[in-house]
Every structure is written in structure tokens, then in C-alpha cells.
Amino acid sequence: xxxxxxxxDQTFEQEVLQSETPVLVDFWATWCGPCRMVxxxxxxxxxxxxxxxxxxxxxxxxxxxxxxxxxxxxxxxxLFKGGKEAQRMVGYMPKERLLQQIQPHVTTPA
Length: 110
Description:
Elements: E1 5-6, H1 12-17, E2 23-28, H2 33-48, E3 53-58, H3 63-68, E4 76-81, E5 84-90, H4 95-102
Parallel strand pairs: 1-3, 2-3
Antiparallel strand pairs: 2-4, 4-5
């Protein structure tokens, strides 16, 4: 539990792909309005759930990782589980809908 982790092209492998816990990565940019709307939702989830980690990757500062996963629109949120993409969501969505999308991939209830 806690706050979203900031990840970069350099730390993505270690922080996300090698994580034992499922990681929801928010691909975002400072100039993106919907990204700013989804940020507090992700912060709430990060502080409430201990069975998932939230990570944020600035696509402008880290184009290699964004390109590697084919992120074309932001915000894009990708849930990684066991080093693989398990779920992808594009655009702003309210907390309940976001949790509904990721719940099947998160094994233990929080």
C-alpha cells in the first residue's frame, strides 16, 4: 500500500516486469487533461489495495517503453502480471469501473 511508483525506461524491467505483485502502469504525460483526472483515482487505489502496485510512466520522458508496448493514446493503463500484459484500458474511467476491469487479474481480495 502507498503511493504510485514512478518508473522510467531504465527501471521498468525491475519495477514492473519482475514484480511478484500485479502492477498497473499508468502511461501519462503532464499536458494530458484526462491523465490528470485519472491520477487521483490511481492514488486512491494505491493507498487502499495491497494486492496491486500502481506505477506511473511519463511517455514524453520515456518513449522507449511506451513504444515497446504500443501506447498510442494516453492515458493508457496496462496491468502487468507475471511480466506479461494482462489487461489494457485506454482513457479516463471512474474508480469502480477501473477496479472492475483489473479485479479478475488480482488474486487475493484486499
